[in-house]
Amino acid sequence: MDKLGRFVGLPGVFLASLFAASLSTLSSGMNSVAAVILEAVRETQFGKHLSDHRTATYTKLIATGSGVVTMALAFVVGRTGGGILQMVVIVTSITAGPTLCLFLTAVLCPFVNKHGAIAGVMASLATTSWLGFGSYIAGVPGPTPLHSSVDRCPFNVSVTPPPPPPDLDK
């Protein structure tokens, strides 16, 4: 923008290309989500008798629905006041624990059936959601950083930068 901003219309073309690239990425993600969901539905009894026309219609509806959900989540994140990074960390923390527990239960406890595993995951998700979102809503501060000064460190090493390389063009 600094070099070519003096040309009329070029900043607008640059901005339009940025938006086009981001929307293209979002569109391919929405279509991928729709395809995965529809393939999961096609494996059921309901999806075995879908015609090509109905399959295309359902794919478009699912992609539109995932786009609407994405827009709604963007508005929710904008209204929370906190950063999106904090929300991502909270959601990742909420889901990581139950996922690890489910995996370890499947590997180490072969006697657990699917009903017990589902009940355990649901209870774990409810508990971690309560803790994660409750602490966010209540405004619980994060951990305080430890003192990290090296003022009284007896071992002080100063590294000098290497000399610049010689200019071979001279």
Task: Give the proportion of residues in helices.
Answer: 55-70%
* Gyration radius, rounded: 26 Å
Regions with pLDDT < 50 over 5+ consecutive residues? Answer: none
**Quick one: overall form?**
extended
Percent range for β-strand residues:
under 5%
Number of domains: 2
What distance separates the N and C termini?
34 Å
Whole-number mean pLDDT: 85
Give the number of DSSP strands: 0
Question: Would you tell me the structural class of the helices and strands?
Answer: mainly alpha
Largest sheet: none
Order of helices and strands: HHHH
Treating each run of at least 4 consecutive H or I residues as one helix, how many helices? 4
What's the topology here?
Layout: H1 10-42, H2 52-80, H3 84-108, H4 114-138
Helix pairs in contact: 1-2, 3-4
Sum this structure up briefly.
With 170 residues, this protein is an all-alpha fold. The mean pLDDT is 85.
Overall description:
Keywords: Cell membrane, Ion transport, Membrane, Sodium, Sodium transport, Transmembrane, Transmembrane helix, Transport. It holds the Pfam family SSF. With 170 residues, the chain is mostly helical. It folds into two domains: 1-80, no CATH class; 82-140, no CATH class. It has helices at 10-42, 52-80, 84-108, 114-138.
